[in-house]
Design goal:
By secondary structure, the protein is an alpha+beta fold. Helices cover 15% and strands 27% of the residues. The protein has 2 helices and 6 strands; from the N terminus they run H-H-E-E-E-E-E-E. Strands 1-2-3-4-5-6 form a 6-stranded antiparallel sheet, with helices on one face. A hairpin with a 3-residue loop joins strand 2 and strand 3. It starts with a helix and ends in a 14-residue tail after the last strand.
């Protein structure tokens, strides 16, 4: 018998009788109230936004700016300041999209002037959190087109 085919047969047998278990994904996101969680824990320093000129090291989150959500659901948080500004996070998907073993969120982030200005940005972001006491941060990964195709108008 050919040693190569014998070895290949043994390998195939091992695959049949010793299935490989999928790696577990660690998550530092809550299972409920994710919209509220993002309103309190998203680090604005990790994304380009209209907050840039106003943000200081002490002001990292919407809560630090004393902003309260005007709309909350399991997958969306909206901050609407009538006649002034709109910020929205819409969670599109949960999973380990960058394959590092830690759960990520695909979100659409909308940052829009309502005061007659021209600032209007909608960008797909990949968010993650590396520990239970850490901020939620945006990673520098491009998301496929269409993540923000249904943003609030």
């Amino acid at each position: 018998m050919n040693p190569v085919s014998l070895l290949g047969g043994l390998f195939f047998s091992v695959l049949l009788f010793c299935p490989v278990q999928a790696a577990t994904v660690e998550s530092y996101f809550p299972t409920k109230n994710l919209g509220r969680f993002l309103s309190e824990k998203f680090d604005l320093a990790t994304v380009r936004s209209s907050f840039g000129p106003r943000r200081t090291p002490a002001k990292r989150t919407f809560a630090d700016f004393e902003m309260k959500p005007s709309q909350l659901s399991e997958d969306t948080v909206v901050f609407l300041i009538p006649g002034d500004w709109l910020y929205e996070f819409r969670i599109v998907a949960r999973g380990d999209f960058n394959h590092d073993g830690i759960e990520d969120l695909k979100v659409c982030f909308v940052d829009r002037a309502l005061n007659g200005g021209t600032y209007d940005a909608a960008q797909g972001l990949l968010l993650t959190r590396y520990a239970g006491d850490a901020y939620v941060i945006a990673l520098n990964y491009s998301l496929e087109d269409g993540v923000c195709s249904c943003s609030v108008n």
